[in-house]
Each structure stands twice: as structure tokens, then as C-alpha cells.
């Protein structure tokens, strides 16, 4: 996967929102500079690297970094989101050391979002503490968010229903698995009663 | 009624869509699922004018509609079988998410089906063009010969009035129609299925998964006992036949070979399975058979009218079906309907076992035997799951490519239900909603948001833990035969109605003790298999919201799921006093009313039933053709005789000797008598 070569992030529409000032309508029609993601998205990806264990290249390559950041901002509000970033910075960027339950639940939610494309239900106490006025229900952020979920890559898989690996690939050992003897597929026609069975005539299906 | 198809385009087939264009048809088919589609295909090809009335929408039979379903599936929170298909309040479908287990055991049923049984009927179905087979797995094992005579042979359930030999030719016809990939010789040797000499399936078998090979290396040839006093059973991993595109077998059909049928609505696509690993709920490339592929070859004499909910079958005082009453609506979200009638010489109900029974009950038809709605069956599924010692590559390929068939047959059936073991290729997706649940668990996210959450792990530790765990996930699915019991039934209750005012199905369901013994035996066999595999068993059954099928039996915790294989509700038999339909799936009480589908089956063995259902539909099509031919030759007998006394229409049915008064493109270009196969 090398989307940087084929589709610069500057052309990814979902990135647009973070490079334009919503207060400035002229920015929407202004010629787009062939720049990378906005500093805010870059910062979000840096944090996400620590949350997910995937590097920045992998995260940018999903094409969803800006959408995920916008989702988080929308779900918890800018204040809680900035507080989360600040608290995370204060513990050296290691989400495992976050102590505040609100920031910790935001960390859980963001990792969940990256791995599955689904914004999860927040802890009820956090939902209350944030004073959220939206329903505390999980949702898939977009159809692409599901197919770009990182979880499939943890075991060298592909998202169920997308990025199909090809006919018969499921027969091969996955990385790290030993080969096992495979009985030869017979592929013989049904023999009649009392007749010697014919030997293989045609190739196996695999 | 309009005389021309509604604007909005035609699907790929030659058939019409929109509104009925004739006053009267030769055949009305209720339901455009697998059975109805096959019946319409056969009869249309033979020159009969067929009206297919489908309660749901037909958004799926165009490629943009298919892509919309894909996106709906991607975005669904729970990727259950009905998740790609949009809800329809005019023709509601049951959903597996309707069932919720209670903290202390027991269950609550929300949604379309009203349930009042001791245990839940755990299966869904889909009311949309293409039917439930849109989200089937696509496995096509045949029933075993001994499955047809369980009462005579083993003393339980009900027997078929026909046997395997009567159906064998239709099994082959169904395997052609659905496009089956398999190894007939292996099926013959390992299971004892009789095939004609030299038979091969249309396509070579679907390649076995790596998981299959790992299991086979440890299990093949090993004898096990399901209990200390039981006889030994030898394990063997056997490839499963699929209605899924594989490599065509050049030897098929006497050397004529087979051309795989690709996607409906997109040419030259889907002619090979590419391993999307989402057969249930939707095959992205449509390499798996669905009825839309057959509909694409429907003759122009077939008219498909969707968003037409049949509310009643109309019959005269002599028991002759006259036609149907149906409710047409435009918007599935805010249904307002108009009521219409359609007439035909023969009416075929093909609306699903539960819907067929519901329609017969609402119409107060076929009631002589008292069996309508009774004998409801499914394949209760026991899931077991664990971790293998090394990565096995789960979530790849079709959901199951092989199984263990050794427990399907034999004298043990006298005391406990037999079962078929599917080796699952998709990890813990069914038993534990993996991989989503694995992510949530490692992050400390509990199912109940009110409970304190774990601290969770992040970063590389999270990534590594997920990879190591999910990559070793393994599970087995035991499909048990449920026997016909008259107490398991569908009824209707005027107090429970849907948005269009149609009575909803009321389900009373339970498992017999012999079935519970089968589940316990299956668990014992699972324990042995996990031991042989040296797998870490994680199977656990207990009450809770996600275990509506939990129960205790003889001190043991067990839990079952539905397989989506509803059957038995208009049971077939050899006497009008004890069964609803005869062996042609024709109602004993109504000679021109057929009820086709799994609802006709007196027993369902341990095989996934769609292939058998398709074989039955093809067989019934032959009889319907014969009856129509008889009715229409010569036409003067029909118009002058008494049998047509109850007709609502003066229209002379059938092929007219001269240019017909009926409107339509070419309803009579092929006189029926000339197309007798």
C-alpha cells in the first residue's frame, strides 16, 4: 500500500476540513496548496501512533486520520479533547500512564476507532461528566472506516467483505504457521458399484 | 392496474417488473426467494405466464443496489445476517438481534416474531427480492438416504413420502441450477451418498482451508467415543459442497463442462470465489449463488412485482384457489398500501416456511389435518471455540470449507439427535463477535457501560496481543437435526399485527430431550476434538444478553443458536389426514394450491437444507407444468366444464389458439404444448 505515491493526502477530500478555516468561506474556493496534512492532523496521528502501535505511515495510509480526529472532537468536544492531549503529553505520550478516567476513556475510544472504525460507547460516568447531549451509542464512522480497521492487520488478515486476497489463498499457511501435510484432492468421478476406481484424470481444483 | 412496467429500468433478465399487466395469469408465485425464483424460471421457460409477488423491495437486483447493501453492511454495528439489507416496515423481517437473553436464563423476543415458547426460535429470514438465500452461507450437502425415514428406521420424527432415490435426479438439477462445487467421489465414500456412476459436480471442490488441513492432520482416522459406553466413531475431515464458483470441471455433463454464473447486474464478474470471507451476510462479488442470478434468465412471460405483500389466498367453496389478495405500497419506511387481487390457475406459496404457514392460517386454508404451522424445525447450532497452538489464519475464505460428517448417521440416532460438524474458518466471529470483542476486551471496554472499565492496553502491546490471540482462534459449529414435533409451531393472533395490519407469526418453540442429549453429545465430541488438537478450550455457556438460547440440561450448561433453516410448517406426507401437502408440495385440501420450500420437509437431517429445497422446487415445477398442460388441453373443456365455476374472471386462461386478447409483449409466441421438455 503506497497511497502517498498515487494519491497525495492533499487530494484526499476528508483532509480538507482541517486545512481550511471554517470561518473563512474564501478558503474553500482558494487553490489548494500541495501540502501535507494540517499540523492538527499530524499531531493527532502522532498521538494515534502511541495509541495503536501502528506507525504514522500506516495511519495516514488509511485516509481516515482527519475524519477520526473530527469524530473525536465532535464526540467529546474540543475542551475535553485538548485536555486529553495535554494529559497525554504530561505522561510522556504513553496512554498506559493516563490516570484521569475521562482522558483514559478517550484513549480507549480512539484506539477502538482506529482498530475497528467504530466509535464505541463511552463509560457512562464519562458520558455524564462530559455533559454530552448526544446518544451514547456506538457507530461505524463510515463504510471505509470498517474496511480500514487496523485489527485485521494484527493477524495478517483482511477485513471480512473487502480486500479479497484471491481464490484459494485460504489454503496457504498464514505467516508464522507451520506447513501441514495436505491430502491430495482426489477429484475423481463417482465410481460405479463393484468397479475399480479410476485414477485421477483431471487436475485438482487448487 | 397499469398495463406497462413502471419506469425505473429493468433488471438484467428478460422478465417484466413493475405492476401486473394481465388480468389473469397461469401461475402466481408468492415470494421471490430461492424456491419461488426456481419455480418461476421453470414455468416461464415452459411458456406459462407467471406473476411473482414479492413482499419486499428489489433494491438488490441492480449493481448500485448491491453496492448500497455492501456499504450498509460495512457500516453496521453488528454484522448479523440481515445487516446489509434495509429494514422494511411494510414487510418486516425477523432479526437475530431481536432476541435478548435474560440475566437468570430465559429470553425476551423483540421484533417481528412473537415468541411464547420455552426456548427461542433463534433464526431470521429476509423479506426482499432474492429472499433469505441472499445471506446464506452457500453450503449444499445432500440429505442422507436414511434422513428420509427417521420414523421407520429410528423411531422419532416424521417420514417423507418419498426417498432419496426419488429426489436424486432433482438434486443433480439443483446442483446445476445453483452451480455447485464439490467432490462427489469424496461425498460418496465418506458419507455414503449414492450418485450415478461417473457423476461429477459442475465445478471442482472449493479448496480446503489451512485450518481444515491442520484439523485433518490430527483427526483423520482417529476413533472417538461420545460417551464411555458408546460405540467408536472414526473421525474424518470431509470437504463440503458449495454453491460457490470454483474451477469448472471439464468432465461435467458428459464432457460439456460448466460455465460459472457471475454477478447479477455486472457482466464477467464473480465467476470465481476470491475469498472475501463474508459469504454471510453478503458476497461482495456474488461468486456465491443467489436467486437474482436465476432471475436474470427469467423468460419475458415472468412478471415480478415487488412491494406486494400477499395478505390472503383466495379460494372458492370447493377448495379451489382462485388467486391472492395483496397489498401494494411504495415507501418501505412509511407504508401506505392499496389492496389488489390477482388471479391464476395455480397459486404457489414460496414465502418461507413461517410465512407460508402464516398465509395458510390467515386464509383459513389447508386446515383438514390440523398440521398447518406445526412441526416447526431448525438446526439448533452448538458453538465451541478455543485457541490453537499456532496461527491458523482465521477470517479467510468461505465460512466453512470442510466438516466432520461421522455423526450424521447410524444407530445412535435412536437416542440422541445426529449432528454435522462444520469446521469454522472465521475464528470466533459467531461465538464471540470477534474481532470486535477482542479489541474491546483488551481496551478494558465492558459490554455494560455502567460497569467500571479495565485500564486497557495500548500501542504495540495492544497490537501484539490482538495478533497473537486472534490469529489462533478456532471454532466448531455443530448443526443438530431437530425432529418434527407438533408442539413446535407457528400460529397467528389478531392482537399482534404488523404495520399493514397483517397478523405477525407467533412462535412456540422448544427442544426435545433427544435434541438436548444430542447437544450434550456434541459437546462431548468437541471436548475430544479440542484434546486431539491440543487446543485451549474457551467454550463457556451461561445466561446473559447474548445467550438467549442458554439452558441447563441434566446438570450441564448448554446454549444453542439458530441456523436460519426454518422448516416443517406445511409438512409433506402420504395422507391428507396427517399432513398439509403431498409429495408434490401440493395442498391436499386444494388441488391447485402449492406450498413449496423447507416448510414441506417432514425431516431435515443434518444437511443445510437449501439444496434439498431447490430440488423439491424443481420437482414441483414439473408437476405444476403437467397440471397446467392438463387444464389447458383442450381449452374448451376448461371453459365449458364445472371446474372453472368459481373463477372470478371470464378470461379464458392458458394459451389461446388464436392471437390473444391479453396485453403484453409476447405471452403467446410459444404455445405451451410445443415447449414440453
UniProtKB/TrEMBL annotation, chain B:
Cofactor: FAD
Signal peptide (UniProt feature, chain positions): none
Keyword Flavoprotein in record: yes
Region feature (Disordered): 1-20, 630-677
Annotated Gene3D superfamilies: FAD/NAD(P)-binding domain
Alphabetical list of SUPFAM superfamilies matching this protein: FAD/NAD(P)-binding domain
Biased composition, class Pro residues, residue ranges: 652-664
Molecular functions (GO terms): flavin adenine dinucleotide binding; oxidoreductase activity, acting on CH-OH group of donors
Residue ranges occupied by any Glucose-methanol-choline oxidoreductase N-terminal domain in the UniProt entry: 283-381
Organism superkingdom: Bacteria
Keywords: FAD, Flavoprotein, Oxidoreductase
Occurrences of domain Glucose-methanol-choline oxidoreductase C-terminal (ranges): 485-617
Keyword Repressor tagged: no
Similarity comment: family membership: Belongs to the GMC oxidoreductase family.
Protein name (database record): Choline dehydrogenase-like flavoprotein
Organism: Streptomyces eurocidicus (Streptoverticillium eurocidicus)
